[in-house]
Specification:
The strands form two sheets. Strands 2-3-1-4-7-6-5 form a seven-stranded mixed sheet. Strands 10-9-8-11-12-14-13 form a seven-stranded mixed sheet, with helices on one face. The protein has helices spanning about 15-25, 45-50, 70-80, 110-125, 175-185, 205-215, 235-250, 265-275, 315-330, 345, 380-390, and strands spanning about 5-10, 30-35, 35-40, 60-65, 90-100, 140-145, 150-155, 195, 255-260, 285, 300-305, 335-340, 355-360, 360-370. The protein has two domains: about 5-155, VC0802-like, CATH 3.30.2130; about 175-215 and about 230-370, Vaccinia Virus protein VP39 (Rossmann fold), CATH 3.40.50.150. With about 400 residues, it is of the alpha/beta class. Helix 4 links the parallel strand 5 and strand 6 (about 140-145). Helix 2 (about 45-50) runs parallel beside helix 7, helix 3 (about 70-80) runs parallel beside helix 4 (about 110-125) and helix 5 (about 175-185) crosses helix 6.
């Protein structure tokens, strides 16, 4: 199989989380930079990365890179790339997205238009045609300009990977599934520990946690642009990857994952989304005000995305109430993402850790208020407890 350098863009601040995911999936990371992680893999890796990675936004096949300070350099650099190795003569191709940071070329529409012309010129020479029907499969191209270095990739994903396929109904400002998954992965939570989201909205955080608990791959129920690129990625790779994903799912797992919201309509939406995701039996959703947050169990996790963008006059009381309820939960940990600048002051405690993350274009902080670790279970304790129960 041909080996590719693959590029996985992600939310700014999640590069380390995504790098760990890629390594755990069995691939060698080649580069980590702001907003993306690159790694080596074959055509099977394209399939597995799209299906299994929880925090990547999409998967690109790197076509090449070059230095470009002028439009002439951009044109020639693009024209010199081996497009014919990827695009058949009837391909529908275009530069769907360009970004430019600290580069002399910054007009994104001009960059996109010029690169398309350069691609056409290259392929005209290769295929000996003057006109392309573009009636075949779609091959969207993405380009990154960083300090005048141009990196070009072919988008294998299509709709971004946060679109798992389960969230048909959403509130006005939902958190992306990829970011919700990262929030969980940045904690020591596992399926044996309780997790509560007191501001669950459409249920994204509890659903992502339940999918992790059931070992359910995030991309197993959606489509990808590259599924039709049979000349690059054999159909068998997709079928094998999806079979692998299905075999790993364990819906018999026992969980204690709870989602609360004050809005009964949002609870109905969350339940429907969980059902579409196939994890509705692993989550308990309930209409409940944050003021009623309490639980008898110890060593639990609150992982949440509380309001912070609207009705600022309500935020002090809301965050203060959350802090009060958190202090009453013996030995629990609190993880929340927010752009509200008085988060720590109103919670009543300085965060043990915080991490700058971007929720869309909004700069936020992921505040981590850590509780004590649960005591280690001594070897043999479980067997002794089972023997006592039998007596």
């Amino acid at each position: 199989m041909k080996k590719y350098e693959l590029i996985a863009p992600c939310h700014f601040g999640l590069e380390a989380v995504l790098k760990r995911e890629i390594i755990d999936l069995g691939y060698d990371v080649s580069e980590v930079c702001d907003g993306r992680v690159s790694f080596w893999g074959d055509e099977e890796a394209v399939c597995r990365a799209n299906v299994f990675l929880r925090t990547a936004n999409r998967i690109l096949i790197k076509i090449g890179s070059f230095h470009g300070e002028s439009f002439e350099e951009l044109f020639q650099g693009t024209r010199n790339l081996p497009w014919e190795e990827y695009l058949p003569a009837d391909a529908k191709f275009w530069v769907t997205k360009a970004s430019s940071i600290k580069s002399k070329l910054h007009s994104l529409p001009d960059i996109q238009s010029l690169m398309k012309k350069a691609m056409v010129e290259r392929l005209k020479e290769v295929y000996h045609v003057e006109w392309f029907s573009e009636a075949g499969e779609s091959f969207p191209v993405r380009v990154f300009l960083m300090k005048d270095e141009v990196t070009v990739g072919l988008d294998t994903t299509g709709d971004p990977l946060h679109k798992r396929g389960y969230r048909k109904l959403t509130p006005k400002a939902p958190i992306a599934e990829t970011l919700a998954a990262a929030m969980i992965l940045l904690t020591p939570w596992n399926k044996d520990r309780i997790l509560v989201d007191p501001f669950c909205g459409s249920g994204t955080i509890p659903i992502e946690a339940a999918m992790m608990a059931a070992n359910m791959a995030p991309g197993m129920n959606r489509s990808f642009t590259a599924r039709n690129w049979n000349h690059l990625i054999g159909k068998r790779n997709w079928s094998d990857t999806l079979e692998e994903a299905r075999e790993l799912v364990d819906l018999s797992v026992e969980t204690d994952i709870q989602g609360y919201d004050i809005d009964e309509k949002m609870i109905s939406i969350a339940r429907e989304n969980a059902k579409l995701a196939g994890v509705d039996k692993l989550i308990h959703f309930q209409r409940r005000d944050v003021a009623d947050l309490h639980h008898a169990k110890k060593y639990g996790f609150i992982i949440t995305n509380p309001p912070y963008g609207e009705r600022l006059e309500l935020l002090p009381s809301l965050y203060r109430t959350l802090g009060e309820r958190f202090r009453e939960l013996d030995s629990w940990s609190l993880y929340l993402i927010s752009a509200y600048e008085r988060t720590e002051a109103e919670i009543g405690r300085k965060a043990d850790k915080n991490r700058k993350l971007y929720n869309g274009m909004v700069k936020t902080y992921y505040y981590q208020f850590l509780g004590p670790r649960p005591p280690r279970r001594e070897p043999g304790n479980e067997q002794r407890n089972e023997q006592r129960n039998k007596q």
